[in-house]
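Lecture 7 notes: from sequence to structure.

We start with a single chain of 318 residues. Read the sequence below before looking at the structure.
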Amino acid sequence: MNFFKKIKIDYYSKLIPDLIKQKKFSDLKSIFDKIYDLDRRSALVLFRQYYIDLTNTPSKSFFGNNLIWVNSFLKEDTAIILNFLKFYFKNTSSQTISCLDYTNELIRINKSLDLKKGGFEYLVNDSYFYQYAIERDQPKGSINFLSNQVAFFESTNKKMFSAPNITKCFFYIIRDPLEVLTLSDTDGTQDNSIMQLMNLDQKPITFSQDSYSVDVFRKDWQTNVNSWTSENVIEGFNGLVINATDLENDPSAIFSDIIAHLIQVGINLNLNYQLIDEYINNQVSEKKSIKKMDLSNHKKKLLNGIIKTAQEWGYEIN
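Now the structure, written as tokens:
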């Protein structure tokens, strides 16, 4: 960093504490934008220092409020929604969008700032920092769709997965747990897929790239589902729950609901049924039945803990 940039950054940095005390959040946003334009790393490091004060700002006065989460226990289910959204925005809107993978973004940011640790405590403590960095690294005004498997969390100090002034809305795709078992069974033994579904080893999914890694705490199927479909989370973060069975049986209705939900939260879109039908006719493959696993009585007993939640969503574990 050259000498004159450093002087400017030092000057702007000294203004931040007073602006926070005076609750001049729009001025704070301007200051951080100026620092970011001078040196991205400095802006992100400063945000980590002051994130507690900044995440309590009113909606849109500091954050762009333009992150939209596409969540599911299975990562491939999020791709169904993202592929549709890419097509729809490309053909109906001049709005800039980004379709990103949250885990990849965490690793990208860690690499760019040389942050080696990516365990759960860091994900909890720095979740707002990561989401600010993602938002700020995308084109200004972009709507950013993020594929995610992390269960929604709230820590003992009231730190949540996200904040309403960061997240515009979210979608959660819920799938029959027996179908999840089939789709997760890579070795044909059933054991690994049951381990994943129930999180029996209590371990996160670890993603690594070069010397950087991130732990994704997906939790078990039931915890993941309940964390995102609770009434408080749905109301507080403008959530829409999508049943994978409904999506496969009537994609036109579900895709229409998705666009209507985006319009409801303020995205500048029109609901174009003809375009939705075009996408379904040309892009959506014919529905293929997913054969549910034939489980032994012993293995069925391992699933007893999720029977109630499964039934609430219309799924039977027999």
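The chain has a mean pLDDT of 89. Keep this in mind for problem set 3.
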